[in-house]
Design brief:
By secondary structure, the protein is an alpha/beta fold. The chain folds into 2 domains: 2-132, no CATH class; 137-382, Metallo-dependent phosphatases (Purple Acid Phosphatase, chain A, domain 2, 4-Layer Sandwich), CATH 3.60.21.10. 44% of the residues lie in helices and 15% in strands. The chain has 10 helices and 12 strands. It has helices spanning 2-27, 31-56, 60-102, 111-132, 171-184, 211-217, 231-236, 238-247, 284-291, 331-338; strands spanning 137-145, 155-160, 188-191, 225-227, 251-252, 256-259, 264-268, 297-301, 317-320, 344-347, 353-356, 374-382. The strands form 2 sheets. The protein has a 6-stranded mixed β-sheet, with helices on one face. A 6-stranded mixed β-sheet has the order 6-7-8-9-11-10, with helices on one face. Helix 1 runs antiparallel to helix 2 (31-56) and helix 1 (2-27) packs across helix 3.
């Protein structure tokens, strides 16, 4: 915990320091403006910690007051520093090229003007990212399998992931999501982790009595609703998260499988974060997958988009989330360094398929840049040949 806290303060504080010097050089504010800017950046650096602290002590209204400006600023600052870094790289390349070609340094620099351009672009991108976070869309995937009875026309699975119901969650957004789910008319509804976020349990509370849980429970899914634990369920408090998920109508699959009469076997595994608070077997996924009959269409629900070599080829489809598609460009480039499989549907080396959702909600900043939220609609159709689109 302390390592995470120190790392966060170094990285986030460093971003503020970098932005401060760039803004100071670009606008050369007078001393009466410099001190308020320093004070603002110090407060903004600490606000995420203040929000979590207020949540932990049940101060929901205080946390909400801090959260909106704090997380919007976080999203803007990430975009701003990303643009600044890009312009700095371009500026340094220009200087090096100029020196190599003319054997002298350029007589002037564009850094003051590029910082102003970066600020303008970041403001525009931030407004767009805030709007895009609410532009929830359906992604449609069709998979043919010979494991389904020929008498079936199709089985429709709808996946939600990373909703992060918490402080900044709005009931209006959830109703739009539920509208998309209802219109899809799923046979099976699945949640691949991080359904909730935060420790609230009072006025804005997340509990088994929460009205948002009742809204989710009202969505029909004739063959059942199933969910797995993500890392944020652990951070929010696992007993509370499980109570909310069950109240929302989900059957929690905790290193368990269930066979449905429609010919699908659904397996679900806990996120590795659970190991921090329990002593679950590290090879639970391998044992679970090996116990599933091979003649059934095997659907694996797993929060993180990782594929164990021992599991690859033993499941027909894995549904995952966690990465949010990067959520705010260019963070997706950093995400790919750790999680090499891109969002969307991919065929693995052993012939299994994995679909990684961009996520249905947002974490931290209520913003998305070039990574719109999705509700995934997967149709499993019976065909002897393997076709995919």
């Amino acid at each position: 915990m302390y390592v995470f806290l120190i790392t966060f303060l170094i990285i986030y504080g460093g971003m503020h320091l970098y932005a401060f010097f760039k803004l100071r050089d670009a606008f050369r504010p007078q001393s009466q403006l410099t001190l308020p800017l320093i004070f603002w950046m110090i407060i903004m650096t600490l606000i995420p910690l203040l929000v979590r602290g207020a949540e932990r002590f049940g101060m929901e209204k205080t946390a909400l007051v801090f959260a909106w400006p704090g997380y919007l600023w976080m999203g803007f600052l990430f975009i701003f520093t990303s643009v600044l870094l890009f312009t700095d790289v371009v500026s340094h390349v220009y200087r090096i090229a100029f020196h190599l070609l003319s054997n002298r340094s350029p007589e002037y620099t564009l850094s003051r003007y590029t910082s102003r351009i970066a600020l303008t672009l970041a403001l525009i991108a931030s407004v767009y990212a805030f709007i895009e976070a609410d532009q929830i869309r359906s992604e449609h995937v069709v998979i043919a399998s010979s494991k389904l009875p020929p008498s079936m026309s199709k089985i429709r699975i709808v996946q939600i992931s990373d909703m992060h119901i918490g402080l900044l969650w709005q009931e209006v957004r959830q109703k739009r999501i539920l509208k998309l789910i209802r219109e899809a008319r799923p046979d099976i509804l699945v949640s691949t982790g991080d359904l909730i976020d935060g420790k609230l349990n009072r006025d804005y509370g997340i509990s088994e009595h929460d009205p948002l849980a009742a809204l989710l429970a009202s969505v029909p899914a004739p063959s059942g609703k199933f969910a797995v634990i993500g890392n944020h369920e652990v951070y929010a408090g696992l007993p509370q998260a499980l109570a909310f998920s069950r109240a929302a109508g989900f059957t929690m699959l905790r290193n368990q499988s269930v066979h449905l009469t429609c010919g699908i076997t659904i397996s679900g595994v806990d996120d590795p974060a659970v190991n921090q608070i329990s002593h679950a077997a590290p090879d639970a996924e391998t044992a679970l997958i090996n116990s599933v009959p091979r003649n059934s269409f095997n659907l694996l629900l797993k929060h993180r988009p990782d594929i164990l070599p021992e599991s690859d080829g033993r499941f027909d489809l894995q549904l995952s989330g966690h990465v949010h598609g990067g959520q705010i460009f260019p963070f997706n480039l950093l995400v790919r360094l750790k999680h090499h499989i891109p969002c969307g549907t991919t065929v693995t080396r052993a012939g299994s398929r994995i679909h990684i959702s961009r996520g249905t909600g947002t974490w931290g900043p209520p913003m998305r840049l070039f990574a719109p939220p999705e509700v995934t609609v997967i149709d499993i159709i019976p065909q002897p040949q393997n076709t995919f689109r």
